[in-house]
Amino acid sequence: MDIQSTVDLLEYCERENKTIAEAMIDQEQEKSGRTKEQIFEMMKERLLKMQNAVDQGLTDSSTAPSGISGGDAVKMKAYIEAGDVLSGSIISDAMACSMATSEGNARMGVIVATPTAGAAGILPGVLFSLKKNTNLENDDLVMGLFTASMLGYIIANRSFISGAAGGCQAEVGSATAMAAGTIVELKGGSPREAVHATAMAMKSLLGLVCDPVAGLVEVPCIKRNVIGTSIAFSSADMGLAGIESRIPCDEVIDTMYDIGKNMPRALKETALGGLAITPTGQKVKERLFSKTGLVNQLGGGKDHASNNHGQSDSSVEPIEAGRK
Amino acid sequence: MGYNSCFDIIGPIMVGPSSSHTAGAVWIGRAAFELLGGSPEQVEIQLFDSFAETYQGHGTDKALLGGLLGYDTEDERIKLAYDLAEEANLTYTFTFEENCLEYEHPNVAILHAKLGTKKVVIGGASVGGGLSKIFRINDEKVDFTLSTHDDLDRIIQSASELVGQ
C-alpha cells in the first residue's frame, strides 16, 4: 500500500469504508511494521508538543533574536478577549494559536514541522481552535493529524513542501491545504469533501512566492501562517457545503509543482527578491548581517546573530515602526 | 520525493526556525558525527545556493554544528552551537558557493570532517520537512534518505566501510 494520489486515496477510503486518517494509519502500519497503538502514541507526542508551543507562545511577548517579530500573539489574544472580533471565535482563535506557534519558531523554540517549520503554525492553529470551540478532544485532534499527514504525504511526493524548492505555495500552501481537508474530516465530512477542500485551499495559494526578509522565517511567514488558517476554514466550509473544486485535487497539486519549477530562484527562499528586497527589507538585512562579509575570514560567523534564548541581540536595532 | 511516513510530514519535533534549513541541516551534520564516531576536531563546511544565501537567518550554520556535536533536531542547545563547538574543541570553516554541481538542489551542504586519523566527507541535501538526502560519502555516490534514527543506523551500517582510517 502506497497512496500517491488523491484518486488512489478516495478509491481506498470508499472501498474500505474508511476515513483518510484511517487510511494513513493502515499505510503506516504496513510500511513501518509498528502497531496501530505505537503509531497513535507517536502522533500524540507530536500533538502535545504542539500544544506546548501554543501555550508558550500565547503568553510570551518577547521579541525574536532578530528584533523583527514577537509579541503579536499576545496582542491577538487580548483583542479576542476584548470580545468584538470580526471573524468570529473559531477563526480568531486559530489565528492566535497559529501566531503563537510561528512566533515561537522564530525564537528557535521547539515546534513540530507540519509539514515544515515555516508553515508550523497552521495546523496547530486550526486544531486547537477546534478544541476550544467545539467538543473535539485531544484524541480526535491526533486523528486530525493523520488526515493532515496523508494529504501532506501525497502533496510532498507529487510536488514539494519546501519554500526553497517551490516557493511559499509549497509551504504555507501545502499546510493550508492539509488543514482544510483535516477540518472537513474532523467535522464529519466525507473523504471526497475533504479532498475538494484541500484542492480549493491549495488553489487559493498557487503562485505564492517565498521571499523572507533577511532570510528569516518571520516576515512575512508568520502572518501568512495566521491567514492560512482562515483560508483553511473557508475552504473547509465550502467542502462541507458540497461545493467541489472544478479542477481535481491531483491536478492542482501537479500545477503547484509546475509553478514552483518555473518560479525564479530569487523568489524561492534565497531572500533575493519580493518583500526581502523592499527598501525596508534590505535595511533589516543590512542591520542584522552587516558583519557577515567577515564570516569567511573569521572562520564561522561567531560575530553575528548570537541568538541567545529570549533576548534580543544587542547589536540589532528594532525594525522601523513604519514597517508594521 | 521520497517521503515514506506520516512522521515525515507531521514532524520532526525540532527547534525553529526552518525544517529544511535547520532540522534537515542537523541531520546532515549528525551523519558526519555518527560516521566519525564522535565530534570532529576539524570541519570544513561548504554551503550552496539557498543554504549559502540564508544560513544566518535560518541558523543553518548552528544546525550543522549542532549535528556535528551529536545533537537531535529538538535539542535546545543548537542555538548555542558556536559556543559549544568551541568548548568541544571543534574548529570549523564555512565557504559559500552558488550551485552545487554534484547534486541539483538549492539546499546543499558538503562537510569535510576529521577526527584523529579518521576523515569523512558527507554531501547532503535538505529537501524539505526536515528530511535530508545523503548523496555523497567520501568519494562514493550514495542515495540515503535521512529523517530518523533508524535511517541513521542504516547509513552507518552500509557506509562505515567507506570511512577510511
Characteristics of this structure?
A: 324 residues, mainly alpha, B: 165 residues, alpha+beta, six-stranded mixed sheet, 30% strand, globular
Would you mind describing this structure in some detail?
The complex is a heterodimer of chains A (324) and B (165). Chain A is built from 14 helices and one strand, in the order αααααβααααααααα. Chain A has helices at residues 6-16, 20-32, 36-59, 72-81, 88-106, 122-133, 138-158, 163-166, 168-186, 191-205, 221-240, 249-262, 279-289, 295-298; one strand at 110-112. In chain A, helix 2 crosses helix 7 (138-158), helix 5 (88-106) packs antiparallel against helix 11 and helix 6 (122-133) packs antiparallel against helix 7. The model of chain A is unreliable at 291-324 (pLDDT under 50). By secondary structure, chain B is of the alpha+beta class. A six-stranded mixed beta sheet of chain B has the order 3-2-4-5-6-7. In chain B, helix 2 (19-36) packs parallel to helix 4 (60-68). The radius of gyration of chain B is 14 Å and the shape is globular. In chain B, 61% of the residues are buried. At the A-B interface, helix 2, helix 3, helix 5, strand 1 and helix 7 of A face helix 1, strand 1, helix 2, helix 3 and strand 3 of B.
